């Protein structure tokens, strides 16, 4: 296996002309020269990309969607949860987002721009605010010798500033949740390294919730004379939205001293009627640092006055007091400068923080007010920006230590390739930048669906949600539904391994929704039929649209009636047991067991012929919602058998012998039917319809086995599939879907014909789903096919991050040529399943121990996974065998 392989990084860095490597920049990560241009420019999937036969098949949906879209956008004046007519065009600009989990995000581009905003929960606004910049000022002997905006842009506005930093001199390096930009200053013998740190810390449920980030500027002076160096941060009050001009915004300087540490800066009060917030830039006071500010300036025209102010003496001179509120139509900005001396041939550094305090939020319906998680530590009064900044500036070194301890075992593992290390950490951006919200559970809310624990239901306020809050993230920035469950199945590995309490909290919410119903009838666009929004005892598709009232109104998705989807209930059962296996939380298992029984009972109706195996219903009734399955299928049938298998396991754990016997019998009969109806000697057929394409090779055919393995099952007593058949199926997928597709360089196509041509029969069978590919790679690793697994996943990483310029916006899908679908998508978080597979399948003394503890009671940084596989008794295994009282 290659280690430290950077062949394609070489392409991304080919225009870099300097030899400088910056200060403290790690070896592994995603690295790109600021002058790089991606050659390939892909387009979003549109109706015109649909083949004639698929147009004919989807004509009804197309017409119904158009009517629905018109009503939504033109009459209700709302944004559709999926806007098929206004896909986000590809901008190959994004870098690591700023901020912790669930407090809103501001994404910076890899060239330093502030360009993607999610301050209103779940709602994205893509706009580069050009006045938001860092500027450097170098002074020698009391004279300014160099002043430069650290941006390669040359905008038509702000002409009084010195733009156009030469991109060939600088590079960006992301290893999320940190990122570095290295700027050698041409002709100055000075190199600046900006390190961006966000508090995204596994097993930490406090600082990880904070809406803050820190920028540490390291200044290296290679001259044999000293310099005075100032860095200025300019920020507009707002996000480039039309609200910025709505009037009433105002700024004020602040100073806060606490526990012997002082910070000062500027507060930018953004006084909108909906979700007002305060943005705050600050710096820590130290003896040889000079902090100065400009409370307010107008970010239009040349802005030469501000520029001249800094150039004069390396500091800013502001009028005292706060600025008057803006007039309608007017924008305001503020600036903060920090300066320090840098000795000859020496170093110094400057620290800035950026915080945004929006403690109370409403979603699109404006029906309820929610409070964000961080208010537990910083209050709900909307006055927390100074203390958030103080906390960030005095704690970021601790955060970094925790991040380093967590990442170190993986980064130092020389058996792992460099691209994988980048993929693993950088894909994690979506936990934060997935429109994520993390709120407190309101005192009056009842997640039990009305059936109280004393009646055998869930607690109204489950302890996990009470203590750790409520968590939701979008299916994708373009597919605006929270916690889309069929997709979360893949992505959930990141949460359960890194923030297991959030994973369990989400499960309690889903469980609550299972026992609830909303019998309002509505039109489902694919079938054209009316049916209820949500019926009882089935898992919802999603927990709602942030532009409506999530948790309150679930199932924003109305393409299909998902009450009849075959995968959702099974994915709940599989996650429950995997989560229990990884956390050993017996209360969780006890609470979820009746819900698992209920959803399995609902699922039984899909076994219409009583052979122990469920059947698909002849439409796209599962996560591949554009790919029809008829009769027993490899995907849903496999998930079913795996679920029945874990029901056996859980029945044993809860000491329910009758349930064990029942599920054991189903497993025996179902396995035989699965084998008979789907096994073709080499792999499991896509479905058993007997139609022309039913023997397509599906890359995801072993998803059930994947979850069994991730749960320490799949062998011995709790086995659902013969090992040799799984291995043969994976080999077929590798040979056909991976190696016979796009020269083996783009991951695995969803569906492949046995003769080696992609299955073009549906709009999704010839797509590559990046999250599915990472999951497939995980199964391969579990089954001992490490080389193949890495090779498979590498194709996706290199395609997305190095070829297509989709860093920090990994899409759901791409085709071999030309198009992609749904940018910034949840599913690719499944890369963490690869890490789980590596952790559990490597010899124990060499395994990088990186994931979760069984109890996870206290915030931790580095952790150890303690799992054992079935038939390989260990301490954990003996725990699993024990009954739960
Ligand atoms: C008459 C016209 C000229 C032709 C119109 C054809 C189109 C109406 C359809 C062709 C392709 C369809 C889309 C394919 C994929 C979709 C994704 C889906 O949402 C989520 O997708 C995930 C899979 O990627 C799934 O796992 C999640 O659970 C879903 O939430 C929503 C539908 C659609 C956009 C689909 C809609 C119709 C077409 C554009």
Summarize the structure.
This protein is of the alpha+beta class and 885 residues long. The chain contains 20 helices and 32 strands. A hairpin with an 8-residue loop joins strand 20 (360-361) and strand 21 (370-371).
What distance separates the N and C termini? 47 Å
Strand order of the largest sheet: 1-9-10-11-12-19-16-15-14
Structural class: alpha+beta
User: Main sheet, how many strands, which sense, barrel?
Assistant: 9 strands, antiparallel
* Ligand identities: ligand LE2IUY4E
What does this protein structure show overall?
The protein is α+β, with helices and mostly antiparallel strands and 885 residues long. The chain is 31% helix and 20% strand. The chain contains 20 helices and 32 strands. It has a nine-stranded antiparallel beta sheet with strand order 1-9-10-11-12-19-16-15-14. A five-stranded antiparallel beta sheet has the order 8-7-13-18-17, covered by helices on one side. A four-stranded mixed beta sheet has the order 2-32-31-30. A hairpin with a 6-residue loop joins strand 3 and strand 4. The longest helix is centred in the middle third of the chain and has 27 residues. The protein is globular and about 85 Å long. About 4% of the residues have low confidence. The site of ligand LE2IUY4E has 23 residues, from helix 2 and helix 9.
